[in-house]
Amino acid sequence: MYKVDLKSKSAKKLKPIRFKDLELKEKFDIEVWVRKNPEILGENLLIISEQTLLPSGRQPDLLALDKSGNLVIVELKKDDSGKEVYWQAITYAANFSEFSYSDIIDMYEKYLENLGIADPNPKDKIEEFVEEDIEKINQKQRLILVSKEFHPDVLRAVLWLRDFEIDIKCIRLTPYMDENNQLFIIPEVIIPTPGVEEYIERKISKQKTIRKSYPSPFSLEKGDFTDEELKKRLKETLTRESDLTPRLIAFIKILLSDNRIFDREEIKRRLYNMGIGKNLGQTGRYLSNISQFLTKKSTPHLRQIIEFQMPRGVEGEVKDNYKVVDKYRELVKEVLKEIGEEI
């Protein structure tokens, strides 16, 4: 980087320095710069959270939304990325992938409150910023890693992850200081390499075409089992070792509590009242996991027993209006009793 004097028509080369030499810290310096000026990262982002505490005790540096409604996890380091920064960011993305739109709004509202900004309707601000259909919010997560230098292991891992369609970017922030102690910051995207995005997109498109030849785990096909086989399969499902099993049992108990259709919101509230989830947002994510399980190719017996609505009938669509098929209500109750569950 050069500092040019227009009067003398001379250029003086500035030497890069280390953030450490300036006694800067991620949270109180670099993080604040990015929070106040997210365009440093090379795109238009709406910062919605800072240092959000996860159940694990970890705190991602910044969370943002891009114009497409994708959740962007920003992880900042000072002079060296270390070897584990990409894994840390992936862990955060996995945690936040289950957040609903209401969770995003709550997070943004708390963020504004912490900054002392009174906004009566943060939802409007998000919907004004995002250019895509609001239902697409957080359907995809992106990762941005920011550091002065990146460990070679991190760069290799990031390139490999991008091959598998993980949207992850590395930005180098290089600080310079002039003779007047003025600080300059140069952001540089090093992955993906500028100018080759089109090639990468073509490569990903080709990989998608190849992967489409592999069967999807999604199915709406219902089973046609005898009562005996149905009981056997249901019993196996409700006794398998999985965190999902007790939640699925609670879900079925709700459907058996009355011979009618239950909408998603009522089921979510009742699951929460049964102790499924620490808050309604988490309960909603658990319900989504149950719904996804209902449409796996391996669970046609559940679709034979439980009806639900999916207007378009496509993978990823939100399900609603669940009901146990009348002729199987007693069969399901018998299975629950056999595995020691009270109805």
Report on this structure:
This protein is of the alpha+beta class and 343 residues long. The chain has helices at residues 26-36, 85-96, 101-114, 122-129, 152-163, 197-211, 227-238, 244-256, 264-273, 280-294, 300-305, 329-338; strands at residues 2-5, 10-13, 46-50, 62-65, 71-76, 141-147, 168-177, 183-191, 306-309, 320-324. The mean pLDDT is 84. Helix 7 packs across helix 12, helix 8 (244-256) packs across helix 10 (280-294) and helix 9 packs across helix 10 (280-294). It folds into two domains: 2-211, Trna Endonuclease, Chain: A, domain 1 (3-Layer(aba) Sandwich), CATH 3.40.1350.10; 227-338, Arc Repressor Mutant, subunit A (Orthogonal Bundle). The protein starts with a strand and ends in a 5-residue tail after the last helix. It has twelve helices and ten strands. The longest helix is centred in the middle third of the chain and has 15 residues, at 197-211. It comes from Candidatus Syntropharchaeum butanivorans.
- Distance between the terminal alpha carbons, to the nearest Å? 72 Å
Q: What is the correct CATH architecture of the largest domain?
A: 3-Layer(aba) Sandwich
Instruction: Please bin the fraction of helical residues.
Output: 40-55%
pLDDT < 50 runs, ≥5 residues: none
Report the C-alpha radius of gyration, rounded. Answer: 25 Å
| Overall strand count | 10
Lateral arrangement of strands in the main beta sheet = 3-4-5-6-7-8
Summing up helix and strand content along with how strands pair, one would put the structural category as alpha+beta
Number of domains: 2
Mean pLDDT: 84
Global geometry: elongated
Main sheet characteristics: 6 strands, mixed
CATH class of the largest domain: Alpha Beta
Strand content: 15-25%
Q: Kindly identify the CATH topology of the largest domain.
A: Trna Endonuclease, Chain: A, domain 1
Order of helices and strands, N to C?
EEHEEEHHHEHEEHHHHHHEEH
Number of helical elements: 12
